[in-house]
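Give me structure tokens for this 338-residue protein.
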Amino acid sequence: MLQDLILPNSPRPEALKPPSVPFGEMLLAQGVEWLEAVSLEILQVNVGKLCNQTCTHCHVDAGPHRTEIMTRETIEAVLDVVRRYPSLRTVDITGGAPEMNPQFEYLVEQCRGLNRRVMDRCNLTVFYVRGKEHLPEFLRDHQVEIVASLPCYLEKNVDAQRGKTVFARSIDALLRLNQLGYGMPGTGLILNLVYNPLGAKLPPAQPELEQEYKSELRERYGIKFNNLYTITNMPISRFLEDLCSSGQYERYMELLVSSFNLAAVQNVMCRSLISVGWDGTLYDCDFNQMLELPLFKADSHTIKEFDLAALERRRIVIGDHCYGCTAGAGSSCGGALA
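Here you go.
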């Protein structure tokens, strides 16, 4: 039954009310008894929570103080899975700042050697960390697709969300990537940007915002990029704490509930992706990973037990945080869904 799949979501003070309609009940009302994976094409690997930034919207609670780092042994187990299953065409590397893991470059080199599409979820300012200055050239040389955080094209908004001087360094990093060919026609070097709303609201329409971003960044700085992904802030971890401290939690959850979109449910990323935690534990998505919600009755609990046939038809664990992926136009690591 669906109720068996609903596990406790993010820890929150007892005084906070749950949403008016639990996510599982919303699905049942739409005739959806449970969510199932339909394929498994993307291996998303969180190589650790260490980051050079501390962003207010971060669902990972990443920062310079975190010590959780994927070891070489676990990375070898990831690579063994990639070798065994050619249908895993994309390796999506995330963090923290994934580049802060000492094994990041090894993982990239091996995956590219296996002819896999490799994505790096980059915060851009990591290029200015001592010892990481060579990364733009490294990513270019290995034709890594960059998915870069830039939550606004205005300095004030970016620095408010991600820290003082982050915007200026991000613009410099984007210009450097453009000079290397990223975002330029005919190079094959893909540069995608990510927008997160500032505060307790949903993203605007992705196509219109992408055109606005492209116009503003081109006219202000001469920057070019390929695509913009709009991602809803998830009511977990650091953003949840911010919602609670500002008294906006209940209003935000009701916004998500009232904006539920069944069309987005059909395309949620967990239906074609599996998430690997820094310790090798498997999860339905990166958000479930941060909430430590294990797979439902799975024999493959870790990367060393990986069974593609079982995982690509698994039932997906849900919770009220799933409203973040299904509100409005929907939200995923690849942007809007509907």
